[in-house]
Amino acid sequence: MIPILAALLAAQAAPASAQPPEPPKAGAQKPAAEAEKEPLFKLTEVASTGSVTVGGRRIGYQAVAGTLVVHSKGWEDTDAIENKAKAGGDDDDKPKAEASMFYTAYFKNGIPASDRPITFLFNGGPGSSTVWLHMGAFGPVRVQTADAVHTPPAPYSVVNNDQSLLDASDLVFIDAPGVGFSRIAGKDKEKAFYGVDQDIDAFAQFITQFLSKYGRWNSPKYVFGESYGTMRGAGLALALQNKDVDLNGLILLSDILNWDFLPDDPQINPGVDYPYIVSLPTYAATAWYHNRVANRPVDLQAFLAEVEGFATGEYALALIKGNDLQPDERQRIAEKLSAYTGLSVPYLLKTNLRIQYGAFQKELLANQEQTTGTLDTRFLGATLDPLSKVASYDPQSSAISAAYVGAFNTYVRQTLHYGEGVEFKSGIDIYGDWDYKHQPPGASKPLIALPNVLPDLAVAMKQDPDLKVMVNGGYYDVSTPYFAGKFEMRHLPVPANILSNVEYHYYESGHMVYAHPPSLKAIHDNVADFIRRTSNTR
């Protein structure tokens, strides 16, 4: 047993330690000099024990639910400071921003810490908690949800997760600042933590603190990020190196490392055609799934390989030509698009061959007044507005979110004994206020552009040629199309011998690959094998 956990279990943390700390209340502040010395948050930790059966083998574990405190790196609201100075005011007496970051860690019994891989997992958003990976993929328990249809309301069923990754690695599920039970406080707190580089720095601080607290500096280390968490994860690979931490592996699920590939309204952002190219194979996969492909082939993978070739060949060339594309060629491309996507030729001609984000989900089954999912296009739901141009909600999110959040709230409070009387925030609305500026390696300042962490990952892999990268994706994911991940890695600026460190795995599921039971088993087996191959340990 890990010594510090043995002490925790013997002592049984005091009831107050089970509560996420809240920032000081207004009117209760101490004098400025004293307030600067006193932290805004205190560490919390509650220990418990449990077991999970994976592959027919029982795995006993110790669990710790708690928080670590990280600090602002120094991002300041310069406009506010200048305005204060002009007004003759000064707010330097206010405490600098801090974040109390919530985590749930699972440590397998009977394995020396220095000889046991450890994996840090998180979802993305930005503004999402990690309840999804925790309760749907790799934690010791899993909420049961219906596959590709709406899960009925409570009571929800939580079962032993026979696909938990505890058979291959210790696990640490982390919630970003401000979500889950994590909280932020202090001067310019939103600016300090709600941004690409601020977020990466906070997680780098968290991981290094965790390694020290639990004596895991010599463990094989992995980072597993999903969705926006892949951007965070790729940035962390380099940020951790800068703190003298080399990862054994970076695991990406539903990756989006270059936001130039995110689709937009072609009327608003004309001339940017990459998003339509990388999204096309997902549209084709969806049409194939819903039997909207003429002469539907049996082999999905062979069909998608054909579509990928068309997307980067004839289709890409047609889009590049823009208004110079001749009418007969435009007609021919529209007909091919129609054959692959199930959308009508007249509709595709009206779109100028560019399918706007949200439009495909709304249009594919419009004659049935049904909308496909965005995170997972296997899911269907009644169209809210048959006259709308794009989908106005995501049927997959509506189908399973309540089950995940309801099950976790019960599990964390009753089994992990954490958070009594405190709100768990499954997500917060910060997408539109996020600071998307990123300073890639070699740049003298943050760039005013959509973020791209491919340079960060490339530098990390060049500096550590042993770093392995695993790319995972679902064929039915419109939000982060699987082919975007392939396309990104084709442009990763590293030598061929290092590029061979990247491997790819794709599944007949959506953004949350694990929502499809056969794909959950497949991704568990693939990730467990990846960890075993790259850790050189038990």
TrEMBL record:
Region (Disordered): 14-35
Pfam families recorded: Peptidase_S10
Membrane-spanning residues: none
Gene3D superfamilies: alpha/beta hydrolase
Keywords: Carboxypeptidase, Glycoprotein, Hydrolase, Protease, Signal
Source organism, top-level taxon: Bacteria
InterPro entries xref list: AB_hydrolase_fold, Peptidase_S10
Signal peptide from the UniProt entry: 1-18
Name of the protein in question: Peptidase S10
